[in-house]
Design goal:
Elements (H helix, E strand, L loop, with lengths): L5 E6 L3 H10 L5 E7 L3 H11 L3 E3 L2 H5 L6 E4 L6 H10 L3 E4 L7 H14 L3 E3 L2 H4 L1 H11 L6 E9 L19 H17 L4 E8 L5 E9 L5 E7 L8 E5 L2 E5 L8 E6 L5 E4 L11 H13 L10 H18 L20
Parallel strand pairs: 1-2, 1-4, 2-3, 4-5, 5-6, 7-10
Antiparallel strand pairs: 7-11, 8-9, 9-10, 11-12, 12-13, 13-14
């Protein structure tokens, strides 16, 4: 792919799809050419809202649209395997919302399909594409705080969410962990890689999803990470990483920060802030879109910022935490067909 516009298809019409599309249409080298939903009415309304020329009432039609270079999949995550699989099988490149899938088995299937078809696939972990988060990681990797000893991160919403809400619905992969906990877990992975041991506790709903979960991750280096997520209490949504020679604190909204503070032993604190030249901080979804388009133009099938092996590692950790707390979704029972597809919600 050369310097021409990258043509996007949007699969789903919910809130995150709208937020991403709003940022996408502001990029001069991006063109949104099609949208698909489960109903023609929803697709048409979304298309009219954003000036998209083609609207499809089924996912497969978008997957087979030859004018689409890359499909952004923003369905509820219980449908990620099906939606992304359709697009990849039809030869489309895919940016897939987080959490990547319900479990690592589904994630492995998508990665294998993308590699078999030589298609680009990336998890939409916008946190990893944030210039400020990338700056933080570079400082840590360069030894600014010495050897990392601990990571702390939390993400909680106050709710309350009724039992009918998707966050409480097991069929839609409900619960705090996959929707919110993916951020603290991914932050720990970004700095320390995959943990060697995992302990976790949770409070479960009557429906069997986690209302709040706390996990302690450990590494053979001796590093520890404490992560917490909740849909029954609003938390500070902060993160910190502590090393043998200092600490970095990220205030509220650590997954899309506007600043962080570096504390080094024997020195005054240093504040790092968002660079306006990189675009407005609230337009952070554009950073992942730019990374996708950069990779496509370079002929890459995955992003070095959000590598597929890293996504699989995060999914293994999420699976392990769910195993510890006893959360299992429909179709995941040992006696179930491991290749069975979940019906899109």
């Amino acid at each position: 792919m050369g310097a021409e516009n990258v043509r996007w298809g949007i699969l789903a019409t919910g809130g995150i799809a709208a937020a991403f599309t709003a940022d996408l249409v502001d990029l001069p080298d991006a063109e949104v050419v099609a949208v698909a939903s489960r109903t023609a009415e929803a697709a048409k309304a979304f298309a009219e809202r954003f000036g998209i020329p083609r609207a499809y009432g089924d996912w497969e039609a978008l997957a087979h649209d030859e004018d689409v270079d890359v499909v952004y999949v923003a369905t509820p995550h219980a449908a990620h395997r099906t939606a992304a699989g359709l697009a990849l099988a039809a030869g489309r490149n895919v940016l897939l919302e987080k959490p990547f899938t319900l479990n690592v088995r589904q994630a492995q299937e998508l990665v294998a399909l993308a590699r078999e078809r030589d298609r680009f696939l990336m998890e939409a972990m916008w946190m990893y594409c944030s210039p400020l988060v990338r700056r933080l990681k570079a400082l840590v990797d360069d030894g600014a705080i010495g050897e990392v000893r601990s990571v702390q991160a939390d993400f909680g919403l106050s709710g309350p969410f009724p039992p009918s809400h998707r966050l409480r619905d097991p069929r839609q992969g409900g619960g705090a962990l996959l929707d919110l906990g993916v951020y603290p877990v991914s932050f720990a992975h970004l700095l320390l890689g995959e943990p060697s041991d995992i302990a976790a506790r949770a409070v479960l709903s009557d429906e069997g999803v986690d209302l709040q979960t706390g996990a302690l991750l450990s590494w053979e280096s001796g590093a520890l990470a404490s992560v917490h997520c909740s849909i029954v209490g609003g938390t500070p949504v902060t993160a910190s990483v502590t090393g043998t020679q200092g600490r970095i604190d990220i205030p509220h909204g650590f997954f899309n920060p506007e600043r962080f503070v570096l504390h080094r032993d024997g020195r005054d604190p240093e504040e790092f802030t968002h660079d306006p030249a990189a675009g407005a901080a609230h337009d952070s979804l554009q950073h992942e879109a730019r990374e996708v388009m950069r990779a496509l133009r370079a002929g890459e099938t995955e992003s070095p910022l959000v590598p597929l092996d890293g996504t699989l590692a995060v999914m293994r950790t999420l699976d392990a935490i769910r195993d510890r707390i006893g959360v299992r979704y429909p179709g995941e029972a040992p006696e179930a067909d491991p290749t069975a597809e979940l019906t899109p919600a």
